[in-house]
Design brief:
Length: 89
């Protein structure tokens, strides 16, 4: 779920490494992320109804939400010891 954000932080990281870290970060919280994505369905429907005009607002809103979730999950994993700073470098 967070592989894109992980690779944005460290472009030298391999895709498989980013996927492994993302899998560790989201362990036990996949239902929360699924509900998050479900909550954006009405926004994406609004984008479709307005022929993409609403995407000026919806896409940045969605991307910001995912980025903030990534930061929260990263801090949580670092505090709990699931991951270390070296995993992200």
């Amino acid at each position: 779920y967070f592989a894109y954000e992980i690779m944005c932080e460290d472009p030298k990281m391999s895709i498989s490494q980013a996927l492994k870290i993302s899998k560790k970060m989201t362990y036990g919280a996949k239902s929360e992320l699924f509900v998050l994505d479900l909550s954006f369905i009405p926004w994406f429907m609004l984008t479709a109804i307005t022929c993409g005009i609403a995407s000026i607002y919806v896409i940045p809103y969605y991307m910001t939400t995912v980025a903030l979730y990534y930061q929260n999950f990263k801090v949580k994993c670092l505090q709990e010891g699931v991951l270390t700073e070296d995993d992200f470098l």
